[in-house]
Amino acid sequence: METEIFMPTEILIKDKNKAIKAKVVQSAIWARSKVVEVLTEDNDRYYFIYYKNSLIYGNKLDKVEKGTFIDKVFTEGMTIDAPHPLLTALIPNLSISIPNKNKLFSQLETHYSSQEIAYIATTLDSFFEKDQLVKVIDTIYFHFRRNGSFMKSFQVVQILHDFSPALKSAHERLNLHDFNKYRDFYQPSNLLSILDTDPLFVENHCFKDRFNPEKRTLLKDILREHDSLVELLLWLEDAKELREIDTIKKYTAIAQRFVTMEEWVQILAQVKVNPFRELPESKGIMEKMIQNGHYEKAALTLLNFIGDLPASYDDIQVEIWRNSDSRFVIAHLEEFISLLKQLPEGEAPKELDQKIFQMVVVLLERHGLKAVYEKLLPIQAFNLDVIRKIGNMVELLEDPDRMMELGDYYADFKQYDQAIDCFFWEMELQPQNPSPVWKISKMYQYKGMISEAASYQKVYEQLKDHQEIS
User: H/E element holding 233?
Assistant: First the structure.
């Protein structure tokens, strides 16, 4: 039974000459940064920090401390849970070597500006002591101050204050007289002007407040220039959270740089954006799934849109219904009931009855009779034999004089333990009657309990002989 549409994303971690296999659990985006959480075969959790698609640092963590950057990203950022095909695109290299912690900041100097290093330091508070990171940022701040670069030093002290608002020195520096004009410049209403001078600030500010329509639009414009994958994820977040659906075709073109068309249709379905009315290619993809026998994967893609599909999808729905495993149908019962109501008139009652019968067998293994009856209420109008039987059984529950009849129904549905209980009841009421004893013997035989079946068969023969003598 297929329960996932997508395959897991596997990575290899190289740590101190050890190669560790792991699977991605989730990833989260925060402006230019992202965090990837992975789980190893030994159930160790590793977290990796990226900036501009490059690995900065990562290591094993027993837990994520509240208030750290990793905690913030997974609670306030854009999160993608595994399995998901875009995870592979988000992680530039699926073989990860953990950088040398002691040389990390000296190595960052060769790749990033001083302001970026100050910001990157704030993302590493799960791996370094906070005082150590404050010291790194302080060094950059004082370097700019000594060189008379007041704008850059103000940019860095803003980063420091955001990182550690309770730090007295950061608060005092932020309010220095020398920075008055920069404080006036850094107003939310002035973001377009700030963008030329400090794009890092604007991206972080817009991302933090990305559900504000104006800032979201600006963020999309920024991302369009240098990170189309995050722009795509931002649009998917629109679709999932805000229901602001832009042109699907536009983002389909972007998505095809990173995933197949089949994966994209499945991604849209996952965020409850109906691709089947907007993308003509969707029908061919569903037909291919059916041809390849992937009925349940097709169902997982399609079920959210039952009732909102073109008539041309009728045959696909019929194939999904006829070929999906009963346990899978039960796991998605509400959606499949909606699908049943959409089936064309030509669906053969006998085939439908057989399928519902298979479902009832599984349902009775998991639930009481009355609960099963209630679950089937939405399809009472189908007037099927199996539905009538369940209705009869519910009535018999209230009639202790008809336990043999109820036991026969349970036996029909392969619920042998419940049938045995009913026949025992009848055997106690009529201890000289061989019929319930024979039925108990048969039930144990069906259960594969040969010695028990033989014992009751012997009792049955004795009662039968006694009955004949009488």
Answer: helix 228-237
